Amino acid sequence: MTESKVLSLNALSKRFGSVVANDAVSLDLHRGEVLALLGENGAGKTTLMNMLFGHYMPDGGSIDVAAPNGEMQPLTLGHPQAALSAGIGMVHQHFTLAENLSALDNITLGSEPLFALRRDRAGARAKVQGIMDRTGLVAPLDTPVGKLSVGERQRVEILKALYRDARILVLDEPTAVLTPQEADTLFENIGAMTGDGLAVIFISHKLREVLAFSHRIAVLRHGIKVGEIATSDADERVIARMMVGEDTPVTQRDAMTPGAPVLTLSGISVRNPSARDSLTDVNLTVHAHEILGIAGVSGNGQSALASVISGLRRPDSGSIQVDGDEILNPDPKTMIKAGVGRIPEDRHHDGIVGAMSVAENMVIERLDDPEVQTNGLMNRSAMAANAEKLSQAYDVRGPGINARARLLSGGNIQKLILARVFEQGARLILANQPIRGLDMGAAAEVSRRLLEARAGGAGVLLISEDLDEILGLADRIMVIHDGQLTEVTSRNREDIGLKMAGEHT
Amino acid sequence: MMDILQILLSESFWAASIRIATPLIFGVMGALLCEKSGVLNLGIEGIFAAGAMCGWMAVWLGAGLWGGVLIAALAGAFFGLIHGILTVPLGLSQHVSGLGVTLFATSLSYFTYRTALPNVSSPPRIEPFRALDIPLLSDIPFLGPVLFQQTAMTMLALLVVGLVWYVLNRTALGVALQAVGDNPDSVDAQGLSVYGLRIGAVMVGSALMALGGAFLTMSAFDAFFFGMVNGRGWICIALVIFASWKPGKALLGALLFGAFDALQVRLQTEVGAMVPGQVFLMAPYVLSIIALVVAARKAEYPRALLTPWFKGQR
């Protein structure tokens, strides 16, 4: 790492309405350096990077970028085109690829003259090939991007930036969608690229990879840069304290003896035109006082599994038992009645009805309960009392129980769902990605509640892509790959990672 | 049976098929361009009417035939601009805006026509495009009369198919258009303008649709009538799906429809005594529905079709 500066953000500020997303954030980046940008959700990391890339217009502050000759020059703000030509490349968390085009077309998109009659495909291909040889970022160039794996798509995204001679690369949560092995390969490639002088900023909330692969760490909290530290001086506790502002309570998982089975799936198969959403001969049992973790990279059948257990999808073969009783005609209502509580993956879309009030959403799975309705008429005062009670108990904060549920923040929506599930006294809790996208405080709360339910005698099926979450909560771990489940006895990250990638070792 | 065979082998049948297909070729290429960029343009039916009226009126007022074609294209681009602004930066419902443009463009065309010609009993005529007589080529047996004794507008339509194919598949502009119809973020992230590409595609596409209309008044007939578009625009919308958004297949679809239509006219005279004429009039539409059912199940939609995109929201 040399000391030549390539980028400086000077007191950038951005407000959305009354919310201050970034408040006078300053940041420097040097040639060949890997800077990790850390912070809880809503801390303003992505906003900051979107200002750098010209997607957002800052309300105040300025950005200076080094020209190829090393001289710092001010960047025109609010124009992606200006950022691109200044040598800034960004890989978004949600890929910005056209799936109907080949990788090569995606890479050259926007860098050739639009109205020319011919394209220099051979020249472009040679340049991309050169970059692939130098960095080890290899992707098939002629296959439509829609047919590539997630890892390959991400490499195409990075190639897009390098093709435009990026000297500064921004990666927004690059490993969120990768297996642990793919993530390690990515960081190896990044290492090769920084050797050539590329400067990298990566946004992450996985402390492990931040500590392993960055040179310097900057932490944002509530839109303010609260600290900067050389990675060699940091450890997990130090960083976590910087992010949250206090020591995070360590979730305590007491040993427990599993009880009777609360959910048994035998020989469940779901056939779907899309292989990403199929299951083949799935067998699993969740006992009372037990959390079973299902690890896997997204798109390996998790949503089919969740659909079967919540009664949304009838399996093509196999049987389901809840609390010892066979469910013959699974549909959502039967499953809820049988004691399945679900925390759905897409909490905004499948967890609440956004246009209905918080109070209504809290009773929406038991509308025929005499406590809340008589002869088809809703008892509004009972609903209000129920909502007040649950909001208190589960710390659901928002504009009030009569406000539309979509006005709540993600963490509070999740608490609303938890309140609903736990108040029904569910025997089995299906928790599909319950922590994804929540900040550390809310995530700790969700974990605590799941462990509480386990202590109270429920069984929990925890589906997650985050291995740390599974390792922290689950009593037993199974890996889902390509619609098939395998139990793993080892709690070694490496072993589980290999199974997630489909290697049968 | 022999009669049908005779029809299928006749030069006049094939020449008529291509003639009937010409406005559809313009329309289907226009609709395809719009939809490739992610914007459904249901204004097509009205833009046909506007093109028919404007092209004809320009010539009737003294412009040359190609001048009329240009005026029609500009009129189409104008309505395309309206639809583009409403649906792209403003992000309104493409269905509602498109139907609005159809009603607006149709009524405005009729209104203008009636205002210019308040008391005519029979529609005034212009001197339309004549069939070309290309030396040598026109004399080739069978192919000559079928392909080369068409009007210049038919030639233009076939040229447009080639052009659209070339632009979409061989130029950077085409790649950008396909990208903006699949994932606008991909275009934005590479510093290109999503709004510019989409509005541009809708304007050029609408200009092509208007040429389809202009063909009706300047090549197929020589006058403007109310109701003369008669659902051709809607057929184009269906043909784009049938063609799975591919220019070559779209040409084929338009020709197929033209052939059905030419066939039913001839069948009416052959076996018309036994079967009511309406059955034949209906036949091309029934057949195109069947063709759609078969083809559309495998169609590869532009992923971002109908989805508005707003700058700075991700």
TrEMBL record, chain A:
Gene3D superfamilies reported in the protein's UniProt record: P-loop containing nucleotide triphosphate hydrolases (3.40.50.300)
Residue ranges of domain ABC transporter in the record: 7-247, 263-505
One GO MF term attached to the UniProt entry: ATP binding
Domain of life: Bacteria
InterPro entries linked to this entry: AAA+_ATPase, ABC_carbohydrate_import_ATPase, ABC_transporter-like_ATP-bd, ABC_transporter-like_CS, P-loop_NTPase
Pfam families: ABC_tran (PF00005)
Keyword field: ATP-binding, Nucleotide-binding, Repeat, Sugar transport, Transport
Name recorded for this polypeptide: Sugar ABC transporter ATP-binding protein
Protein's organism: Parasedimentitalea denitrificans
